[in-house]
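so ive been stuck on this for like two days lol. basically i have the seq below and the ligand is adenosine-5'-triphosphate, smiles is in there too. i just want the complex predicted, nothing fancy, no docking runs or whatever. if the output looks off dont worry ill sanity check it later, just need somthing to start from for the group meeting slides
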Amino acid sequence: MTAMIELDRLHKTFTLHNQGGVVIDVLSDVSLTVAPGECVALTGASGAGKSTLMRMIYGNYRAQSGAILIGGVDLVQAEPREIIRLRREVLGYVSQFLRVVPRVPTLDVVAEPLRAVGVGSDEARTRAKELLAQLNIPERLWSLSPTTFSGGEQQRVNIARGFAHPYPAMLLDEPTASLDAANREVVLSLIEDAKARGAAIIGIFHDEAARARVCDREIDVSRFTPARAA
Ligand SMILES: Nc1ncnc2c1ncn2[C@@H]1O[C@H](COP(=O)(O)OP(=O)(O)OP(=O)(O)O)[C@@H](O)[C@H]1O
């Protein structure tokens, strides 16, 4: 099957302009493919480069060389406009933290990614309600902005939002961290559903049991870490 996500000989350095222009070699020669329906876990010690790699795949960090193909579009070469389109239609990102927009009701926060791809208001809200109910957000909170919600409630709203649109490619950054057992189970089944409909997923999971259950392969990112001078 053709890959949905394909990383080809990526190289990433950071230049510390405020520290004498020191160049840190973080990742080199990263090649990796993820097929539709497959979930790959990034592992490796703290500082190995897992978050850096995720941020590169989402287009937040620019690679020095190599290619990041998402559904055939190379993010390394793409114009900002193209990256925005890709994030809206193709590439989802779910972190543990919600970026709260003040005054927008929770229901609309969750429905928004669907509205953005042209889904009608009623259908988008129906899907949002379904996800909020699944993630045990009490109905009395749906019309309120999540600004004042607890950390756990915000995390679950963020997950609902992240899974509203069926992205063909998804990046998951610790999606089960600090959830209770029941909600963790809901998130794992959302991931399984996404795989079943053909999503290609890359994730960071410190939760080993979660990783073992939903991931098909593990990639230890330290294999891409250039030997660093002491
Ligand atoms: N913006 C940045 N500027 C300079 N160096 C950075 C930057 N971001 C990350 N690094 C360096 O890149 C290396 C990899 O960091 P990264 O956060 O990707 O690791 P990680 O594997 O996600 O670690 P953890 O499991 O602790 O989150 C570290 O040595 C870090 O200091």
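The first strand starts at residue 5 and ends at 16. Residues 14, 24, 26, 44, 46-52 surround adenosine-5'-triphosphate (CB under 6 Å).
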